[in-house]
Structures are given as structure tokens and as C-alpha cells.
Amino acid sequence: MALLSVQNLIIGYQSQNGLLRAVDNISFELEKGRPLGFVGESGCGKTTIGMTLMGLLPSNARILGGSIGFGNKDLTKLNEDQWRNIRGKEIAMIFQAAMNALNPVYRVDEQVIEAIVTHRPDISATDLDKRLKELFDLVEIPQNRMKDFPHEYSGGMKQRVIIAMALACNPQLIIADEPTTALDVIVQDQILKEIKIVQQKMNTGMIFISHDIAVVASVCKDICVMYGGQIVEKGTREEVFGSPRHPYTKTLLGSYLSLDNKGEIIVPDMREAADLKLENGYCRFAVNCKICSRACKSRKPDWIEISSTHKAFCCEESVVRNANE
Amino acid sequence: MLKNPYIQRFIKGWQIFIKNPLGKTGLIILFVFMVMALASFFVPLISPMYDPMTGIDPDIKISTGPSLTHWLGTDNVGRDLFAQLLEGAKVAFIVGLSSAFFSIVIGTIVGMISGYAGGIVDTILMRIADIIMVMPSLVILLILSSLFGQFNIWIIVFIIAILRWPAVSRVIRSQTLSLKHRPFIEASMVAGASHLRIIFRHIMPNVLPLAFLYMTFRVTSAILVEAALSFLGFGDPSQVSWGMMLQWVWKSGHMFQAPYWLIPPGISISLLTLAFYMLGRSMDEVLDPRLRKEGQS
Amino acid sequence: MSKLYPAKPPLIKIEGVTKEYRPRQGFFSRDHNKVLALNHIDLSIEKGEIFGLVGQSGSGKTTTGRLLVKLEEPTSGSILLKGMPINELKGNTLRDYRSKVQMIFQDPYQSLNPYLSIAETILEPLEVHHIGDEITRREKVVDTLDTVGLSPGLDFYDRYPHQLSGGQRQRVAIARAIVLNPEFIVADEPTSMLDATIAIQLFKLLTRIRETHDMTFLFITHNLAAANYLCDRIAVIHEGHIVEVNTAEKIINNPEHPYTRKLIQVQPSFAFDRKSCL
Fold it and tell me: Would you tell me which residues 62-121 of chain B have a C-beta closer than 8 angstroms to some C-beta of chain A?
């Protein structure tokens, strides 16, 4: 049974240039135990999805259509009071540079306690104490550092506190939005390991959002690749990264810099930004796609199944299927 | 042409500005007074009787209340009060705006140089600013006036400007300090630009909006200082202003007998300064994104 | 070896450079807290190479770049351009230095004056150094815009930064850096705020400029993989010390210093076949 089921979600932003569809008719499902990664570049809509799942859309954004099934609720239909009940308790978020979210004048344990007590106001003192120790153990911060102030912590430790606070009430779903982007690569490694341990131990559902393919690949089992507000390819990690089908996924992987491929990078020729005003359904990658044909501009792409779990969103079936299929 | 950043900023600023009720009210009040100030050029042309300084109604020798020929009435020598009020509006604008303008020019230049140069130059300039800032401008003007005799209006404008630039310079200096380390300034340094070029070509356009904001506050204080000065009898005796009107109503002993004479200039001073203040507050919202209400980017 | 024919000096040489920062204390306190951003570093950059300086935040890599363009001065040690020390440069000689050494900044949204048009931004170095006249300057700017991929140059000439994307703005920053035909450019994390697909296009541009303009680059980054892609040699910097310098190939495949090894070890990687991306 899917923990989260998003169907045909459309989110628009009111801007000076008119209504922009930041998220254009996307659907996906999340299973517990299978972290789902959203990967894409700036403006693709992945952060908007994260914000929507926390009910934190800015005032100039609207959910224009679709549904988000979480348990027996539809998250698109909640008001602020109902959201307050869910945020932090059932759905929690770890976001970028979250270490700046710690209040410098309160001790670290006090802040974690606040996270716990907000949603469990009648927790007993002994239970509170036990929970506190559990959380700090979970994120591997030694007991004797619990009463420090945030400025005494390193960047990595602060991020771990944020993770502990997100886990405080045993949420069913954690959304991690670029949690390691502001960190040094060595600390990033530690935090990613931490996130994986935590996710496995607590068996929480997880959505991991990042522009860094490798980071997403190290944590997630399923991937959605996004471009211009649309999901262009989805599947398991092995399928999407091992056998990419959509032209954008190929472009993204082709430009990825790793340590062992100096001569084989494929430099893309992407000049234009995605047109977020483009009408519902048309391919937003068409302007930059090398394989794009004239037909792509007049036809709407559809989901082409490559396997039961692997799909790509394109107009041209021949583009997406390999020669020997 | 339309893409010029100055114009773009102005348009965007206007859209935010106009949503603020404070800004709208201030603008409306200002507009009314501006019309009054412009009218003051034409009213004496209708009849010499309406000249605010010298226009005496031959039929009236004492202060009278509002009537059809004299909408606000006359003062104790028969001059039309409404014409005086209009003239006062003109003077208030001239004094306010020119004094503010001079303060801004001095304050901006000093602030930019102080912030940019730092070190000993900064210290000296800011200490001078501190000393001047604590001087009570009204008292200084009174002292100078009693020493050197009554000043003409332009000297008053100039002295107010000299005494009021420090407040501007402090703000401009902070802004300059924060701009100094912005990458585009460093890029110009690396390109080899001289300090003067950086100050006037790069820093100035970025501090000018703030300078204009503070100009509105300077206008308020200039108008009030001039009014107080005139009221106390140290203003320019050849110039009609609202403060002067208040001086006359007081000196001629009509303060409690002629409300039609006392109230209009008093209210005008309050309203005009209030209008500029409202303007300044809403401009503040335009310039500082953090002050904007939800829903505006 | 005979000293009669000394080997040609490297283009840039950094010798024993230390940079201290003293946070300002009160008049009466003793200064015990100094921060050593750079601790006796030595570095040589040869003409024509793209030299990578890889380090994490706080390592001193940005400080090194700033010292090279004289936005800051070293506390001790010296920096030499073609064998001539740059410590004492002032006035005309300093301006001369600035025409030879330029910088590309990290943040494309902050490194262009929002009130100046693209043309005005790129014209500035030419105006400051009194190069050419109005007509030749205009031609040079248009040419440079074409060179950096903002074609047609005339189209972009009158635009303003807010009309351009991050990648385009960074191209303008590159144009400004090359318009004087300098000998050496410090690129301080020029792509860390850009998407991967845009970053790669800019790397291609930088490599092309190295060929066409006979340029030498110092490429400062926290991303070892990017340095490996772009650079001939790499220096790894950690807490103000240069821990290892070698060719890119050796650094990646044969790292000697434990810190370098750790950096390589923690790079997240995943299995994928680049050929499947064609």
C-alpha cells in the first residue's frame, strides 16, 4: 500500500509574467522502505513539490488541480489548522542549510525538546528524557554534547540535530530538500550515511530532493527525473541511471562529472529555459531536445512503458525504446 | 528603453507603493498642497487685493472672518488669509525641498566617501557628523539670527541643510559599507577602476534610492524648523509663510479671537509634514523588501 | 646546472605566503585570536595551464585567489608575476598589473552592477585603461560577447543583468575578464551556483579560451571532479596548507596525502554507463 499517492498535481505561481505552472500534472507513489528521489535542475519544480507536501507554499502559489493521498486524507484540501497537526508530527522536513534554523540562544537539547513537546504536550518527564536520549543516539551525537549551544557544534552536527528534530515525533514521511548541499563533501558523506541509517531503522517513508545525481543515487531506491515542472522519467535507480531513456535524463547523466571519465563528458547545448507557461501537457523539454522533431511541438507526450516500473514521458516512442526492444 | 533598471525599479516600486494606504493618502494630501502652491502664482493676478504681503482690501481695516471675497477672512491689516495660505504652501515646498536637497547632496557625498574610504577619513568625517548632529538646529538658528540680524529665506534654507546632513550621511555610509564588498564592486576594482569612478558610477546609483527616501524626512524637518523660526519672529520678514502667519496672529493679539486665522496655517503645517512622512514610510516599504506585506515579491 | 641560463620563471609564483586575519578587539585587550587563513603556502603556475585549487569551505582557497588579484595583501611572503614581485605595486604599475590579471567571481547574481547595461559593464575595463576609442571599444565588446557565446553580440549589448539567466550573466563576467586580453585569470568557483548542464558548457568555453587567447587559469573549486575535468594540475588545500600538488591524473589515481585520499573516498558515486547517454 502506498504511503503517499500523488495524482495529476498542478501547482501554479502568480508572477509578473502571468501564471506559471511550476508543477504540471505530475503523478507518483511512495512506498515505505523505498526512498524516492526527485532529481532535476533549478526551476524544475522539485522544491515546490517538497513545499506542497508540507503545506508551506508561499501565498502567491496555488494548487490548481490533482490530489495528494496520505493515509485517509487528501493533502490538497487541508486548511492551516489541519496542517499544523500534520506538520512535524506525521510529515517532517529536513531542508538546506537547516543549521541556520537552530536558535542560537537556546541549548540544543531544549530545541529538540520543543520539537517533541509541541506535538505531545502531555508527555511525561521520564518519557521525554528517554525519547531525547533515543534521538541523540540515533543521530550519533554523544550524550555529553546534548547541553551545548548551537555555535559550539560543527556544521555536520547541526545538520544532525535538525534530522533528530525532524524525527522527534516519529513521522511517517520525511522530506529532505537538498539537505547536504551547503555542506563540505566530507561532512556530506557522514550525513548521507546518517540519513540512510535513520531511514532504515525507523522505516520512515522518504522523499529526497536534490540537484546532485550522485547524492540521490546513494540514498534512494526509486527516482523521478524532473524538468520544467514535469516528471520526464521514473523508475528504480538501476533502471533510470543504468538505462536512461528520456533525452533529458541522458543529457543530465551525460554532463555529470565524476572522477573517472575525463574524456567522455557530453557537453549539452541547452540554451533556453523551460517555458513554464506552456499549456498543460506539451513537452517542455522540446526547445532544448536534440532529438526533438516538429511533431513534438504539436503532439502531447505520454507515458511510454519500458518495464512495469520504468516509464518515460515523451512523444516519440522510437526515441525512448532501444533498438533491440 | 523600458528595460532600463532605473525605470524598471521605479515601475515596480510604484506598484508596491500605491498599494499602501499610507502612501496613497500621503500622495493625495501632497497633491492638494501642490495645487495650492501653484495657485499662489496666479491668485495675485486676479486682483492686487489678493497679494499675500501687500494686498490690502481697501474696504477692510481689521481682521474679519470668512466671506465670499475672502474665503478664509482677512488679517488685522486687511490682507486676504487664503492668499497667504497659498503663498505659505509655496514657501513650505521651496524651503522643504531645497533644504532637503542640499542636505542630501552633502550627506550622500560625505556618507559615500566616509564608508568607502574607511580608516582615519571615516573617523574624522563621522565625528564631525556626530558633533553637528547633536546641535539643536533651532537653537543654533536663533542664536545666529540674534547675532547677525534676521536672515533671508535662502540663508535659512542653507543653514538648515548644513545642520541636517549628518543623519543622511550615517545611513548612506552604512549602505556604502555593505556595498563596498559586493562582488560587482570588487570586480571593478580588479578591472582597475579608480576609487572616484567606483564611488560615483557604482556606489551612487545603488544608494540614491535610499537618499531619496531620507530626503522626505529632511523635508519634514526643514518645514518645521522654518515654521518655528518664523513663529518666533526670526524668520525672513519679507516672506509670507505659515509660521509667519502664526507669528502675526499671535503678535496682533488675535490668537484666541480669530480661529479662522490661527487654525489654517497650523493645520497646514501638520498636514504637509504628515504627508511627507507618510510618503517616506511607504517608500521605506518599497525599498526594504522585508517590510513588505505578504503576497508582494 | 649553469646559472647563466636560468629556466624561465613560472607565470605566477607564490612563495611562503601567509595571510592572517585579526578580528578587531578593543583598545585594551591583547590580540590572541588570529585566524590563519593561509599558512606559508607555495605554489607555481605555468603559462598556458589550467591549474586547479581544490578545497572545502574555510580552506583558504578563495583567499589565495583574492591575494592574486590584489583585493587583499599577504601578511608575509611574496607573489611574483613572471618573476617580478607584486607586493609594492601602486598607481600606474598597479593598473598595469590589473590589465594582466583578472578575476571571474562566483555569484552571477552579484558580480554585475544591476544599474549598468551589459555593454557598460564590459566597456569598463577598456575605459579604465584608456584602450581604443569609442568605435573600437564598441567593436571589441561585441566581439567579446560573440566569443563567450552571447551571440549575436549586438543583441545583448544593451540588455541589463536582470534580463539574463545565471549562465548568461556568468558569460558576461567571463567577457569582462577577457576583454583586456589578460595573461592570467583567477576563476573563483565560477560555476558553483549554476546547474550542472550549464556549468559544463562554461567549462567548454573556458577551455576554448585557453586555446584561442593563450590564457592561463587558476580554477578554484570545492568539487574535485570538476577540477579533474578541467585542470592540468591540481593543488589540494586544507586549513591554510597546500597538502598535495600534482597532475590531475595522478591526484585522482595516485593520491599521496591522507586528506586527498579522504576527499576521493567520500565522493558519492554510482554505477552508470556513459555510453548509454549518447
Answer: none
Q: List the domain boundaries for chain C.
A: 12-25+35-266
Alpha carbon of A321: minimum distance to chain C alpha carbons (Å): 12
DSSP β-ladder status, C101-104 and C184-188: parallel
> Residue length, chain B?
297
Q: What pLDDT shows up at residue B147? A: 85
Any idea where the domains of chain B sit in the sequence? Answer: 12-42+82-291
Of B251, B258, B271, which Cα lies nearest the Cα of B70? Answer: B258
Q: The C-alpha cell of A178 is what? A: 537538498
Residue B246 CA from chain centroid, whole number? 20
Residue of B nearest to C188 (CA): B183
Neighbours of chain C (3+ CB pairs under 8 A): A, B
Angle of helix B204-231 relative to helix B81-117, nearest 10 degrees, comes to 140
Residues C128, B205: C-beta atoms closer than 8 Å? no
Determine the distance from the C-alpha atom of residue B290 to the mean position of all C-alpha atoms in its chain, rounded to a whole number.
Answer: 26
Q: How many CB atoms lie within 10 A of CB C88?
A: 8
For the entire predicted model, the pTM comes to 0.84
Chains with at least 3 CB pairs less than 8 angstroms from chain A: B, C
Spell out which residues of chain B touch residue A60, defining contact as CB-CB under 8 Å. 295, 297
- Cβ of A270 and C201 within 8 Å? yes
> CB of A258 within 8 A of CB of C225?
yes
Query: Which of chain A's residues have a Cβ under 8 Å away from the Cβ of B295?
Result: 59-60
Cross-chain residue pair C201–A267, CB shorter than 8 Å? yes
- Count Cβ atoms below 10 Å from residue B155 Cβ, excluding itself: 15
| Chain A residue with minimum CA distance to C205 | A267
Q: Is the pLDDT of residue C148 over 80?
A: yes
Distance from CA of B218 to the nearest CA of C (A): 26
- For B12-42+82-291, CATH number? 1.10.3720.10
Give residue-wise pLDDT tens across range B167-213: 889 999 999 999 998 999 999 999 999 999 999 999 998 898 888 88
Inter-chain touch B297–A59, beta carbons under 8 Å: no
Reduce the secondary structure of A259-322 to three states and give it as a string.
Answer: CCCHHHCCCCCCCCCCCCCCCCCCCCCHHHCCCCCHHHHHCCCEEEECCCCCEEEECCHHHHCC
Question: Picking from A209-213, B121-125, C25-29, which range would have the lowest pLDDT averaged per residue?
Answer: C25-29
User: How many CB pairs below 8 Å do chains A and B form together?
Assistant: 6
In degrees rounded to 5, what are phi and psi of residue A256?
-75, 130
* Size of chain A, expressed as the number of residues it contains: 325
pLDDT at residue A163 above 80? Answer: yes
What percentage of chain A reaches a pLDDT higher than 70? 93
Q: Which of A203, A240, A186, A210 is nearest to A94 (CA)?
A: A210
Provide Rg for chain C, Cα atoms.
20
What confidence tier does A261 reach under pLDDT thresholds 50, 70, 90?
A: low
Measured CA to CA, the distance from residue B4 to residue C160 in angstroms comes to 7
Residue type, A59: S
Provide the chain A residues 29-88 that lie in CB contact (below 8 A) with chain B: 59-60
Q: Measured between beta carbons, which residues in chain A are less than 8 angstroms from residue B297?
A: 15-16, 60
Closest CA to B272 of B109, B52, B28, B81: B28
Q: What is the pLDDT of residue A235?
A: 94
Higher confidence at residue B58 or residue C128?
C128
Quick check: C3 pLDDT over 60? no
Cβ-based interface (< 8 Å): residues of C facing B: 69-71, 94-95, 98-99, 102-103, 105-107, 110-116, 124-125, 128-129, 159-160, 162-163, 173, 176, 180
Is the CB of residue A163 less than 8 Å from the CB of residue A94? yes
C-alpha cell, A233: 522519467
Q: Domain C12-25+35-266 adopts which CATH fold?
A: Rossmann fold (3.40.50)
